[in-house]
Structures are given as C-alpha cells and as structure tokens.
Amino acid sequence: MTEQVEANEAAEEAQDDEGEAEPEETLYYGSVDEFVREYLRNVYRRAINGRSRVWAARWWEYDEAVIRLEALWRSWEHLRMDPSTGMSVWWRDHADHHMAVLLDPDGPFSSAADADENKSKKGQPLPYAAPPEGLFPDQRQIHLPVVEPPKKYLF
CA Rg, the chain, in Å? Predict the structure, then answer.
C-alpha cells in the first residue's frame, strides 16, 4: 500500500510548471498479469472452495476473465490518481462488480471449480499460475512508432 501512495505522489510531481500532467506513461503495473499477481490476488482474499466461490489459477485461459481483469486493471490505474475517492469508486463500481461475476459458481471459471490448484483457504491469496512468457508484455516498455499519414499528392 505504501508503494501505491508513493506512486501517486510521484505522478503528482510529474506535473509540469503549468499544472498539466505529462503524457500517460505512469502505469504502476505494466500488465494485467502483474496487476493480478502483485495486487488483486493479494488484496481480494477469499476462501475458494469450488462450490460457493470459484477462481482459476490459470485465469488467462478464460477470455471473459481476461477482459474483466483488464478492465479492473485499467480502471485501477486511472482511479488511483484520484487521491480523494478514487479507490472507493474503484472498489464500489469496478472490483466488487467484476469480482462477484468472476467468483460466481456459474461465472466464467465454472469449469475450473473442481481442480485443487484453484482452491484456497480463507485469508490466502487467490490461486495463481504464471501465464506463458510474452502473453502479457509490459505496457510500460512498449513504444509504438509514430506513423506519418500518407502524403497527398497535389495535381
């Protein structure tokens, strides 16, 4: 949690003299995998028994889960910059909504309910298995080339 506060303070210091924020290259987590591995699974601790709650350690094999977790990560990255109510809004409007769907026995992980690797006891982090190398590249390291629009010829 201290790291998050320090990251927020660093982002505030990155504002220029006119008060405008620098370009949005201030991601705290570089990928949805890093967000799930380092943050979400550790703060959203639940007993996962395969009956009342389900989760898949290999969450990245479920398209709906990846999309929902990506939305959670991106909304967290945006709302962490709001020092007043950002985290409350994130929990209320994003985490609680999407996690309820993801953990639901009829949700996207329903087929993973019986596997032992997908279970955890109360107070333990959500189960986790690393995705294949390169599946979720660090977005902080990606620099897309600037592509010039085609030149129009004047006749």
Answer: 19
In terms of Cβ atoms closer than 10 Å to its own Cβ (0-12, 13-18, 19+), residue 144 is exposed
- Assess whether pLDDT exceeds 80 at residue 154: no
Alpha-carbon distances of 43 from 79, 125, 126, rounded to whole Å: 17, 7, 9
Distance CA 137, CA 81 (A): 23
In tens, the pLDDT along 123-138 reads 999 999 999 999 999 9
Of 124, 128, 130, 129, nearest to 44 by C-alpha is 124
Tell me what the pLDDT averaged over the chain comes to.
Answer: 85
Element (H, E) at 5: helix 2-13
Q: Letter for the amino acid at 7?
A: A
pTM value surpassing 0.90: no
Helices (H), 14-148: 32-35, 41-43, 63-79, 86-89, 96-103
DSSP letter at 48 equals: B
Distances (CA, A) of 46 to 77, 125, 129: 23, 7, 17
